Amino acid sequence: MKKYKAIFFDWDGTAVMSRKAPAEDAVSAMKPLLERGVKLAIISGTTYENIAGGNIEKYFTHKQLDNLYLGLGRGAYNYSFTEGAPVIFSHRIPDKELLEKIHRTCFDIHMELKNEYDFDTDIVFSRPNYCKIDLMVSSQRGDNLFMQADELELLKRSLRSHGITGGLGELIRLSEEVGKMHGIDAAPTCDAKYLEVGISSKSSNVDAILDCLYKEKGIRAEECSFWGDEYVGIEDGIYGSDSFMRTEKTASGDFFDVSELTGKRPAGVERVGGGVDAFLEFLRGQV
Ligand SMILES: [Mg+2]
After folding, report:
1. Which of 36, 62, 182, 247 gives a 20 to 30 Å CA spacing to 149?
2. DSSP secondary-structure letter at 241?
């Protein structure tokens, strides 16, 4: 397989089975690449505390960390490392006023779904720049935060049974409309369980990190690959969270999906399947 100068990848479900699973396998596949100067960028919706127990830096040498980047919090934070310590080199954290608008938007989405369709949701407000609206309050993923095969169908059935005939697209449009009412340009995304509404996405992370790699090392998108387990479309034109790694800037890179799900993927995304094992095998093959 082609050798890449930089590899961007999702964490939960791509590099590790779950957030609480040991990170050792991922770490040992990453080390030799970092040692040789290949740039690795973890792109995850979660925050620093949830990656490899909250101190991923302890697994690597300072020299290896010089080649590691993290794009976290759904566009919120971009990290590099200086002398072994994580440093936020760019961020998209809203000020208090803007964050309040995001919260009000999400609460109004919740109320609209309750009043119009008697559709229950829960909201997680504590994220730095977005809220998570739980669309499947009766189903719990447990520790496995990645999308499972039957979840899509369950959600679609649940929406229909409440009279939400426009599916996820209707929820995305509703989010954008309610966002406008509060004066924000919302960037809603969804998978089969969560509608997430904020002002940035994984797109903001990959764009910022690629900019940085270009400035520092002249690395271009076509020298990069992008790996995830959530590219599949939930319905026409609405793709999973990892599809946001494909932006105007990154589009000439190579995109791979390790999930086994059938369904539409964005143009240019290749399904390799095989889950975490397939991704780690790819990393080992890059040495
Ligand atoms: Mg994932």
Report:
1. 247
2. G
